[in-house]
């Protein structure tokens, strides 16, 4: 069954002034849509290879699956990781895990922002749950799929590809990531993702 572009869980204007309507239209309707199209095309190529028994293009198709698949998955999470009137601090089990893992929410926030801001080129800041030792880990993914850890479940993602912020924040990535953490992050969604991952 073909993958589809999920609808935004809020109006295109709902995240202003921290993320503009123009950026959301371009980011969701064009960029995310392209990853969905790419993933569907890659999966169709896999089916064709299997049917024909010809695997000469297997490496290229595997790259497309990783790139477009991760792009679709991370963007689908990114939209729900934000909400109008977001920000603040988490509560409950998520807050306790962050405090236990990183010493305090402020320490976590500083690490998450530093890691995200330091991603070379295009990529993501990621807070993930690692089930094997019941731990949280902060990662900086390049593109969508590089520098990750196998076996972890992302629960919070912050897009730092230039199309996510450049029209509004220009080349000052740190202003975008700060605005996300202080005004947009949806801790309720992150907590639900943590509970599901556990």
Residue stretches low in confidence (pLDDT < 50, at least 5 long) are: none
Q: Spatial order of the strands in the main sheet?
A: 2-1-3
Structural class: alpha+beta
- How confident is the prediction overall: mean pLDDT? 97
Number of domains: 2
How would the global form be characterised?
globular
Percentage of residues assigned to helices: 40-55%
Beta fraction: 5-15%
| Termini separation | 28 Å
CATH class of the largest domain: Alpha Beta
Structure commentary:
It is a single chain. The protein is of the alpha+beta class and about 200 residues long. The chain is about 55% helix and about 10% strand. A hairpin with a 4-residue loop joins β1 and β2. It is globular, with a radius of gyration of 17 Å. The two termini are about 30 Å apart.
């Amino acid at each position: 069954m073909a993958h589809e572009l999920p609808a935004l869980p809020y109006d295109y204007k709902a995240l202003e002034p921290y993320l503009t309507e123009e950026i959301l239209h371009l980011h969701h309707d064009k960029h995310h849509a392209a990853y969905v199209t790419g993933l569907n095309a890659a999966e169709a190529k896999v089916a064709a290879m299997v049917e024909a028994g010809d695997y000469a293009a297997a490496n290229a198709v595997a790259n497309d699956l990783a790139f477009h698949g991760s792009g679709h998955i991370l963007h689908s999470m990114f939209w729900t990781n934000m909400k109008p009137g977001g920000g603040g601090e988490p509560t409950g089990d998520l807050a306790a895990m962050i405090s236990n893992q990183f010493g305090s929410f402020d320490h976590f926030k500083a690490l998450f922002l530093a890691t995200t801001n330091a991603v070379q080129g295009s990529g993501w800041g990621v807070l993930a749950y690692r089930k094997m030792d019941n731990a949280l880990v902060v990662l900086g993914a390049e593109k969508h799929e590089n520098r990750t850890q196998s076996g972890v479940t992302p629960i919070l993602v912050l897009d730092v590809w230039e199309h996510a912020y450049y029209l509004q924040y220009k080349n000052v990535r740190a202003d975008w990531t700060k605005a996300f953490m202080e005004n947009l992050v949806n801790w309720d969604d992150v907590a639900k993702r943590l509970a599901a991952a556990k």
